[in-house]
Amino acid sequence: MSAPTPFPRYRSRYLPALTPAQIASLPDKAWAPVVLATGAIEQHGPHLPVAVDSFLGQVWVTRAAERLPADVPFYVAPPITIGKSNEHVGFPGTLILSKDVLRLQVFAVAQQLKAWGFGVLVILNTHGGNTSVLTYTLREIRAQLGLRAGYLRPKIRFAEITPQEATYGFHANQWESAAMLALARAHTKPEWAVCHYPASIHDPGELRPENAPATYSWASQDISPSGIMGDAPAATIEAGERWSDLAADGFAAEIKRWAQDPTLGASTDLF
Ligand SMILES: [Zn+2]
């Protein structure tokens, strides 16, 4: 009988799977990054499940871990699956943490990590609505706790994506729809996908929802009745598989960078 596949597959690096004694005796805590995935449970149009952001975060952690050899030291914290999603209020299935709750939760994880002897926290964030809160919180973690802290943020270039999609396809878009088709086809309804852009790159106006000289605070209903911002029908399984590999490669490289450069995120010990 073959041995059962461990769950999660990165179990030897997954902090909740370790005993207190094992965590206490890890020899590389001071410099090995701890990966914290932050996602969201929120509407992703009529064609995708509400768990897209958190689901994709778990896929990247898993696939990045598979790509890294045992001698690259890193650990994985339990994910934060609900995010600051008030921009998607009013759609069934959207769960919303306030900015304060998200901030306190991430800061509390960092505080405990520090107490256990860890020195580096890196965030794998898959939800744009979390970013403003996380950036602020990472600064607090650096300044108040002295941890090295930052994002895993690979530069992933999807050559086939149009400039319009790259600029205004920012939610339940071609990329997310393709990734979900490739990774969780049974949970998608591609026949319900529509293309909707809340602005055009050919519009010379200065006030637009994103990527403009001036932006405004939108709720999804303000800029897209379906909740889709992007060309969801253009998604294909083949592109989703290719792009998913690119993303996993990128996140693995970012984890490795943090694991191997002891100066990244800090030139000095603050305390
Ligand atoms: Zn998303």
Give keywords.
271 residues; Rossmann fold; 8 strands; 8 helices; 36% helix; binds zinc ion; alpha/beta; four-stranded parallel sheet; two-stranded antiparallel sheet; globular
Secondary-structure blueprint of this entry?
Elements: H1 20-24, E1 33-38, H2 52-67, E2 75-76, H3 99-116, E3 120-125, H4 131-145, E4 148-151, H5 163-168, H6 174-183, E5 195-196, E6 207-208, E7 214-215, H7 220-223, E8 230-231, H8 237-260
Parallel strand pairs: 1-2, 1-3, 3-4, 6-7
Antiparallel strand pairs: 5-8
Helix pairs in contact: 2-8, 3-4, 6-8
Bound molecules: zinc ion.
Description:
The chain is of the alpha/beta class and 271 residues long. It has one domain: Rossmann fold (3-Layer(aba) Sandwich). 36% of the residues lie in helices and 10% in strands. The protein has 8 helices and 8 strands; from the N terminus they run H-E-H-E-H-E-H-E-H-H-E-E-E-H-E-H. The protein has helices at residues 20-24, 52-67, 99-116, 131-145, 163-168, 174-183, 220-223, 237-260; strands at residues 33-38, 75-76, 120-125, 148-151, 195-196, 207-208, 214-215, 230-231. The strands form 3 sheets. Strands 2-1-3-4 form a 4-stranded parallel β-sheet, sandwiched between helices. Strand 1 (33-38), helix 2 (52-67) and strand 2 (75-76) form a beta-alpha-beta unit. Helix 2 (52-67) packs across helix 8. It is globular and about 55 Å long. The model has no long low-confidence stretch (mean pLDDT 95). Bound molecules: zinc ion (ZN).
